[in-house]
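Possible regression after last week's pipeline update?

I re-ran a chain I had predicted before the update to compare outputs. Posting the input and the new output here so someone can diff against the archived version. Not blocking, just want to make sure nothing changed silently.
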Amino acid sequence: MTEIIRAKNIYLEYNGKELLDISELTIYEGERIGLIGNNGSGKTSLLNILSGNLKSDGCQVSHNGKVVLIPQILPKQSVDISTFNYWTSIWQINYKSYEHMSGGEKTRYRISQAFAEQAVCIVADEPTSYLDRNGVELLIQQLEYFPGALIIVSHERYFLDSMVHKIWEINNHDIKEYYGNYSDYIEQKRSEREQQGKMYQMYINEKQRLKQAFESKKEKASSLDSKKIGKPSKNKTKQDGRLSGQRPVSSKEKSMNKSAKNIEQRLETLEEVTSPEMETKVIFRQSKAIKLYNDYPIIGDNINKRLGEHHLFEDASIIIPLAKKVAITGGNGVGKTTLLRMILLGDEAFTIAKKARIGYFEQQNYMSSSKETLLEFLLEDSDYKANELIAMLIQIGFEKDDIKKSLYQLSGGELTKLMLLKMLSGEYNILLMDEPSTFLDTYTVSALESMMKVYEGTILFVTHDNTLIDNVADIIYEVKDRKINRIKG
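New output (post-update):
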């Protein structure tokens, strides 16, 4: 097989924290690799290193052809949509400024630029972000015909299952390789956890057995010793000498002490096995002071909206029942984000419960320069205790050492999940969530699903993540042809 990329001595630190320490990586022609890891583990940095967009001291990267990166966000100076070609046509890029494109349109543009480069390898950082279902299917179709190598970071589990045949997991700053697609990887991880649990239980049992054996031998040796106290020695000489008052130790007692010593040494050299990670359970509680009693806290009727010449809604309607998880789907640019903002701003087309307290998560690349710690940030405007918030942080993928970090030290993905947790733990009874899974790692998306399902309030969320919809939504609305159609629930 032809080598496309070879990289050696990949080492990277960020804010004094070691991110990557990889001795060597090789990518071959035609490979389809999914890159997996927690937010902040260095996935984006590794893609930038492999594509040649980031230099790391001592790192050697060689390319056998052109390697192109599809970034999460294009640098402002690189945005030029004045040139149209075959790929912009395929991806239906209409002439408008990049700033006025929807999230899905910007993703389509970034993909079209990458395909136009005639690369031997495409390195893609969240290429399905904000894409509607048709966009994801088009991307899968185009990549299936792409003859070069692919390295993909994505939170879209369906997309990974369709595209990759190998998973690279960033684990302890290095790469651990698994063969198969994302579902195969999950099954292998499950098997690893089961095996780890069995090995840990064997270790605990053996450690306990050795401790009991040690205590038993010491007790028996001590018992033999006590029986001999006060008894004259059979071997005592007629002439008392300097040592004549000492009691000789019996061979049986010597044997017991020796056995105890051997067991103690086995205990000391017993190889420790760590326990498998336990899932943290989070219980949300809602203050009685903000509890809603309306059966339908949000009702929209005769919804009409234009953005310039673009007619988004015409006499549309929507009803949101109390405490339900409601998904909003539809193509790019049909008005899903606009619908959430109309509710948030109290548009006249909507009747909203008087006691509604609405939290809003918007789609953006979060950044912060604050020196406030994660815990300090979450404790503001929340009636949860510190230990409850720490449990939530751990469930959503933060480590205990991360809790004392300042916000400015977090990656974009880490800030995104912190903002989600801020909203979930806030004093709200209705949550509006616009593409909540974008920029999150696959572990965090699974944790987010669990948290959304047990949340006591009402959630209205826009997403193109089919797995998130299947696992969370009680009701599904589709925005199409200027209407809001209920298709499930």
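Follow-up from reviewer: compared with the archived run. The CA atoms of residues 231 and 247 lie 9 Å apart. Marking as no regression found.
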